[in-house]
Amino acid sequence: MDNGNSQVICKFKFLCNKEWDDLQIIANENSVRFCSGCLQPVFLTKTYNELVEHTSQSRCVAIESKKNTGREHTLGIPFYPGRNDEDEPF
After folding, report:
1. How far is the first Cα of the chain from the last one, in angstroms, to the nearest whole number?
2. How far apart are CA 56 and CA 69, in angstroms?
3. Which of 59, 57, 52 is nearest to 75 (CA)?
4. Where are the domains of the chain?
5. Is the CB of residue 57 less than 8 Å from the CB of residue 47?
6. CA neighbor of 33 nearest in space, from 67, 59, 70
7. Contact (Cβ atoms closer than 8 angstroms) between residue 12 and residue 76
8. Mind listing the pLDDT tens digit for each residue in 23-66?
9. Which residue among 5, 10, 23, 58 sits deepest, i.e. has the most Cβ atoms within 10 Å of its Cβ?
10. Please, are residues 45 and 33 in contact by the beta-carbon 8 Å criterion?
11. Is 15 exposed, middle or buried (0-12, 13-18, 19+ CB in 10 A)?
């Protein structure tokens, strides 16, 4: 069972150089922001179940960075192994 405390790990098809705080806040949405670069919503993803949901729909996600990367979140489009993605994951 996912209690929300587990670390979310994934491979990315596309990595974005933006930060979560750079994205536009959407009224009444704590876990979705708008990217003015790609004109897409970005979904804050904290659990594995959320990752599966967003990845299966090719949504951009923001995942909290656990490594010492100097970034609070990693943003991008996750690689979904069940989908026929043309590019190899990062």
Report:
1. 28
2. 26
3. 59
4. 16-78
5. no
6. 59
7. yes
8. 999 999 999 999 999 899 999 998 889 988 998 888 999 998 77
9. 23
10. no
11. exposed
